[in-house]
């Protein structure tokens, strides 16, 4: 009994340590925050705007609470490192890991709630009918995201959600949460609930995800 209890404490301690280590960008020191802000202003603000609030058709917001809550450090870091091919989001690998990590710490300092990336990424994969997903997509998503999910290239204000630069870096849970909850202070409204732009069922949301993953460029 005692041994079991001691093991429990040890495991909890280990989990906390692991969490503290992976969450290091969230608890960035003042110096790191200063570096991150300076790096952001120098390299990113021209498109993502001051305080990373974004600008329709130019670059998305990086400080809305919904994005920050479902984004893992690895999603943010690798998106910044690799950019998104066929969009104006270029790769920033030359900045180096330290600067990129500092930028992520700075972005995270705008977060309003807990980070739920782990739970979100652990959600089951979407299952559904891509033909039904296409109907929804063409009718309600394509005006902003483009008929093939090409994003700004297609003339809309939504990002390129049909291209590998986005799809290869996100889980189905990430896409699902974004569709359901939208993103505050942007044109991406919620598609579930009474105040949503359209009240899609869970199955309809999954049909759209399956359709996006079936697009030819992926
Ligand atoms: C030339 C304009 C431009 C610059 C400079 C730029 N970005 Fe971007 N960024 C974009 C665009 C456009 C997108 C959306 C691409 C798409 O359609 O998927 C984007 C997307 C992103 C995303 C994904 C956001 C999401 O909603 O999924 C992150 C993270 C990001 N940028 C971080 C940065 C950081 C950090 C810097 C500076 C080191 C930076 N960007 C510099 C244009 C830019
Ligand atoms: C009125 C325009 C509009 C409509 C309609 C719209 N979106 Fe969006 N969507 C946006 C914008 C704008 C963003 C990025 C937020 C920003 O600019 O900061 C976005 C972001 C997203 C993202 C996150 C992409 C990323 O780069 O991280 C997903 C996923 C998404 N939308 C899916 C959908 C789906 C699926 C539909 C249809 C059910 C849809 N959207 C309808 C405007 C729209």
Layout of helices and strands:
Blueprint: H1 2-22, H2 30-43, H3 45-48, H4 65-70, H5 73-82, H6 97-108, H7 117-121, H8 130-145, H9 164-167, H10 172-181, H11 202-214
Helix pairs in contact: 2-6, 5-6, 8-11
This protein binds heme C (HEC) (2 copies).
- How many DSSP helices? 11
Shape: globular
CATH class of the largest domain, named Mainly Alpha
Radius of gyration, Cα only, in angstroms?
19 Å
Order of helices and strands: HHHHHHHHHHH
Supply the number of structural domains.
2
| CATH topology label of the largest domain | Cytochrome Bc1 Complex, Chain D, domain 2
Which molecules are bound besides the chains? heme C
Query: What is the rounded distance between the termini?
Result: 53 Å
Judged by helices, strands and strand pairing, the structural class is mainly alpha
Q: List unreliable stretches of 5+ residues.
A: 1-25
Strand content: under 5%
Would you identify the CATH H-level superfamily of the largest domain?
Cytochrome c-like domain
Looking at the overall shape, the CATH architecture of the largest domain is: Orthogonal Bundle
- The count of DSSP E runs of length 2 or more, i.e. the number of strands, is 0
Largest sheet: none
Could you tell me the mean pLDDT? 90
**Percent range for helical residues?**
40-55%
